[in-house]
Amino acid sequence: MIFLQFLLPQHLLSRLMFRFARIQVPWIKNRFTSWFVSKYGVNMNEAEQEDISAYEHFNDFFTRSLKDGLRPISDSKIISPVDGVVSQCGSIDESKIIQAKGKSYSVSALLSDKSRNDSYASFATIYLSPKDYHRIHMPCDGTLKSMKYIPGNLFSVNQNTVKSIDRVFSRNERLISYFETDFGEIAVVMVGAIFVGSMQTVWEGQITPPYSKSVKTFEYKNRQIKLSKGDELGRFNMGSTVILLLPCDSPSLNIELGESEMGGLKIKIFLPV
C-alpha cells in the first residue's frame, strides 16, 4: 500500500538489500536468483552468461552483460540510454515535467538547480523493470561536464506510486550527469528507489552507498571524459528509472508511451522525427 512507504525505513531496507545482493554462499544466491528469474520472466538467453550459478552473487547477475550484437546501435542521433518502458515523454512546458496524469514537477526541483530551470525543452522518463538489463548507456556522443548527487527519499518508482505520490522523482535520491554534445547540454538522471542498493558510474565507480545527507558535486572540465553513443555510462545495482533531459536544439523525439520493446540500444524508443 502506498501510505506504508512513508512509514518504512527506506534507507535501512536499501542497505540490507545491498548486503544481501552480495552474499556469495552458493545455495542462497543461486536459489534466490533462480526464483527471481522465474518470478519476473528474465530472458537468460540474452545474457552473456546464461548459467545463473556462475554469477559471483545476486548483484553480479542483476547487472549482467548481454551477448555481443544483441543491442545494435541505431543510426539515430539519440538513442535510449536504457532498456525499459517509456512512462512519460514530451515537451517541457513552463519548466514543468509530466510525472503522471495530473502530476508534474519542475526541472529546477529535479536537478536541485534553479539556474538550469529553462535549459531543457524535452524529456523522456524510462522505467526499468526487474527483468530488464540494468546498465545505462550514452544516448549520444558527449563530453562529461559535471555530476551531482542529491540525497532524498527512496520511494518505489513503480506505476502505482508514480500516479499516487506527488513529485516522487524530485523527492527521491538521484544522480545527475551533465554532458556537452553537438546540440547542447543534456542531462541523464538516475533516480534511486527503495531496494536500489547502489548507483555507480564508469568514471567514479560506486557513488552510493555510503548514503549522504548533503548534495555532492563533481566537476570534470579538466579531465576530458568523452563517451560515444552506446558506451556504458553506469549501472543500477537493483533497478529504478532514468530521466533524459534534452535542450532546444536536440533532434526531436518520436516516442510511444508504454513502449516495451527491449529498447536499450536497439532502438525503437528514440527516433528523429
Largest sheet: 8 strands, antiparallel
Using the alpha-carbon principal axes, give the shape: globular
How many strands appear in the DSSP assignment? 14
Question: With helices defined by DSSP (H or I, 4 residues minimum), what is the helix count?
Answer: 6
Mean pLDDT: 86
Structural domain count: 2
Distance from N terminus to C terminus (CA atoms, Å) equals 40 Å
Order of helices and strands: HHHEEEHEEEHHEEEEEEEE
Low-confidence segments, given as residue ranges, are 259-273
Computed structural class? alpha+beta
> Helicity range of the residues?
10-25%
Proportion of residues in β-strands: 25-35%
Which radius of gyration do the C-alpha atoms yield? Answer: 18 Å
SSE blueprint and pairings:
Elements: H1 10-20, H2 26-40, H3 58-62, E1 85-91, E2 96-100, E3 103-106, H4 107-111, E4 122-127, E5 135-137, E6 142-150, H5 159-164, H6 168-171, E7 174-181, E8 184-191, E9 198-201, E10 205-208, E11 216-219, E12 226-227, E13 232-237, E14 241-246
Antiparallel strand pairs: 1-4, 2-3, 4-14, 5-13, 6-7, 6-11, 6-12, 7-8, 8-14, 9-10, 9-13
Give a verbal description of the structure.
- The protein is of the alpha+beta class and about 270 residues long.
- The chain has two domains: about 10-60, no CATH class; about 85-245, no CATH class.
- It is about 15% helix and about 30% strand.
- The strands form three sheets. Strands 1, 4, 6, 7, 8, 11, 12 and 14 form an eight-stranded antiparallel β-sheet that branches. Strands 5-13-9-10 form a four-stranded antiparallel β-sheet, with no helix packed on it. It has a two-stranded antiparallel sheet with strand order 2-3.
